[in-house]
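so the lab meeting is tmrw and i was supposed to have these ready like two days ago... anyway. pasting both below. for each one the top line is the aa sequence and the line under it is the structure tokens. i havent really looked at them closely yet so no promises
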Amino acid sequence: MKLESMSRTANSRKEDTHERIVGAAARAICRQGYGGVGVADVMKEAGLTHGGFYAHFDSRDALLVEALERAGRESFEALTRAAQRNAGKGLSAFASLVESYLADRHLASLDTGCPVAALGCDMPRQSPPVREASVLRVRRLIAVVRATLPDAPATTASVVASTLVGSLQLARALGNNAEGRELLAAARRALMQQYDHPATAVH
């Protein structure tokens, strides 16, 4: 039993360390893009030495895949929490999604928000495994949008997702300033006017 307990403890420590590395990489990938994720820097941010990297990952690409999945999951969870908070305010699921995705706070911090907006332009240039993981994130975003517009044509979700991503990218290019915030506000207004409907309300 003692050996089993020691083994479980060792495995638990390894899993915790693995999660710290992935968490650091997920933040870095949104903040700096794929090219800005260096193994040494990620390990340093996680409080670990460079030499321990290959005990957890076969390659840098393997780290990028897990980091992208983590960033996508955290973005989805944040959108879900926002929808729950907004449910009592009478906002529809669609309105909640738009307000959260195009929130001004995403201008100030590049490592928050959707990884598709942070990485979209770089996705086609990646290795096959990373590109495949990127495609899954795009499909996931479209699926999240579609769930808020159940009565709309399937293609509408793709159009809305494109507008969300493009608006956030352009606003970030303008900067965390009045001009960037006005672009986000204009995009929010346009989307609400065209697509928001009481039938999509969160219950």
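ok protien two:
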Amino acid sequence: MSGKFITFEGPDGAGKDSVLDAIVPELRAQLGDKLVVTREPGGDPIAEQIRDVILDPQNTAMDDRTEALLYAASRRQHLQDVVEPALARGAVVLCDRFVDSSVAYQGAGRQIGEQAVFDLNQFATNGLQPDLTVYLDVPSEVGLARIEQHRKDTQYDRLDQEELTFHKRVRAAYQRLAKANPQRIVTIDATKPLNQVIDDVRSLLRHHVVTD
């Protein structure tokens, strides 16, 4: 595949949406139809339907392994329909969350095993890895406070019901992933003012997308 696959990761409240909202128009102006912006879970019609099931706040009885399997199923469909065709035609794909999220949230947060979730997703993705992962790091307390400050009723989903200890496990897993994969995962300090975080991500992408 000749394109570039760049993923964005971070615990809840890290500011991924705000950063992407700022940088996507700039990249679109440079790359045109060579830029594909997508998300997980979701990104195509079937995967979006699975997303609705996963995040429905009414589905409190969902088993933890069922949740992990649904994420992997959504991911597989998304890769087949969106990511792999875009990479094959040489596009730059920016994806909001990928396998690292499942390892962190289901493997560590749900405590069903980081390696087990990683192995499940190796099957789902056939081993596809991002060329670059931008990890926005923020303490759990800070991230959750941001979410509460900006919350709207329509933004409330099933994962928002989790306690602080869950989110701390998620962040710790992300930090382990970043330490274990330094060539792929670049950590950005998301406690800085938003404009500085955006500048840091912009500089990183300029190197990887434009001059690399």
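from a quick look at the 2nd one: Strands lie at 4-9, 35-39, 92-96, 132-137, 185-189. The chain has a mean pLDDT of 93. will dig more after coffe
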